[in-house]
Write a structure and sequence with these properties.
Helices cover about 25% and strands about 25% of the residues. It contains 16 helices and 31 strands. This is Bifunctional metallophosphatase/5'-nucleotidase. Keywords: Hydrolase, Metal-binding, Multifunctional enzyme, Nucleotide-binding, Signal. It catalyses: a ribonucleoside 3'-phosphate + H2O = a ribonucleoside + phosphate; a nucleoside 2',3'-cyclic phosphate + H2O = a nucleoside 3'-phosphate + H(+).
Amino acid sequence: MTSPSGPSRRQVLVAAAAAATTPLIAAAPAQAAGAARPRTWDLTLLGTSDTHGNVYNWDYYRDAEYDDSKQNDIGVAKLATLINQIRRERRGKATLVLDAGDTIQGTPLATYYAKQEPITATGEKHPMARAMNVIDYDAVTLGNHEFNYGLPLLDLWIRQLGFPALAANAVNAKTGKPAFLPYVIKKVSLGFAAPTLRVGILGLTNPGVAIWDKGNVEGKLRFDDMIATAAKWVPIMRARGADLVLISAHGGDSGTSSYGPELPNENPVALIAQQVPGIDAILFGHAHNEVVERFVTNERTGTQVLLSEPSKWGQRLTRMDFTLTRERGRWTITKKAATMLNTNTVVEDPKVLAAVRAQHQKTVAYVNQVVATSTVELSAAESRYKDTPILDFINHVQTEVVGAALAGTAYADLPVLSIAAPFSRTAVFPAGDVKIRDVAGLYVYDNTLEAVVLSGAEVRAYLEYSAKYFRTFAPGAPVDPEQISDPAVPDYNYDVFSGLDYDIDISKPVGQRITRLVLSGTDTPVADNAQFVVAVNNYRRSGGGNFPGIVKTQVYNAQQEIRQLLIDWAQAKGTIDPADFFQPNWRLVREGVPVF
């Protein structure tokens, strides 16, 4: 990250080095030159994305090796083994390694070095910098989650990397100049006295940062349209000698956005390939999907642009292979294809493990600290479709904090409501000792607590929007809890309120489902003009999920992390007892008959 005035001297030097003095990568001809056909060479691109702070194949919330129903493994250490294997197999040939972003957020390991012992305070090297430097990437694109912890931490992390960090569409809000390095051009050697291949790599981050991390970037950075930015920079890269153009983009390929139309498209990768000429391939991320190989035809040139997305958390490694020829002084790609490698086929790289071991062990010790004793087991397994004590625990703490903060203010007499979402289906507070990792497993995001004032009409509109999470079931039809939700709506975009009583009728159309909305413990309907203080996380309040009415001036914003507030409450109480906070106040119905 540069200062608001534009790229730093260091970044200018990095750009110059990348474009002019990058050490040559040796490559051997794929086949001998012959009279009948031109000589060919090959290039391999290895791509990662959305590693989200995963280095070890470890589940910090379970304090055990990571596992899931599909036997996936995770972590940069696993990726390193695959990358090293391919580099050894291709020794003497050209291999590039890129990452498409969302790197420094997502695990207790990453959180620890952003919050508990922030690298900005200690000067310690970030674990993701340590791990990625061992691999020796050629470039990384900034994802939206890179901005979660503020620009100073991001700036330091970038300076700790041994390779460039790219984000062409993140620009200085005052000058309009690039705030980060837009692209690099890598010189790839094709053998002694042979022509050099110049590979241009353009990085594009997600415009949603302007909403999701508004508090960190407002007035400092602007996030331009990814398609327009590619259209601007690709011709510049070609003019400056790029023979082959790769894009590393932190945006999906669906063409849709999770927010409204006020920001550029969140997932425009296929549109970039279709509309912007001069692109050979795109490595992308953000959507956490596994897209092995997708070709999109450019509407102006007819070129087939190769796209690939390597899932999430280090579960997969994209491999793109290009065959090239050179005729009349120009390089031509004669073949390109992509495959996907699974990290559960290899062991972890010992050098990556060693580089991060001390930080990993410190994090494990931290998350295993006991914070309280729970009187019973509390599970989030049913929180999506039933009012559960564990979700009420979040709402209770949020309500208590906001209520105390507003005492003695103009808002002190307004009822305080609270909003929470079922982030995890597997979170559990065991009966007995509850540890930091149990709380972190319930509240997996680094959100902070805010509050706004909503009217009764706005609360109803918000609940109607949230209720689109559920599929429609006719009265009497069987309801499978595992199939109850619309797959297009993620769990984190289903919110429940505390402080009011309401019914959601899933037999009715979306927009007509809140059939009962009354003041808590009464039969008094909530008036449209009633006023409520609503405790909400910063992601939602800033527009994440595009919920109606919530993007407005805060009446409370102390920049307190919700997960830490939950930990602090549990530590202060010493006991987690549902009798202290569980208030059943909502249910799913059909024609007034409870579903469960």
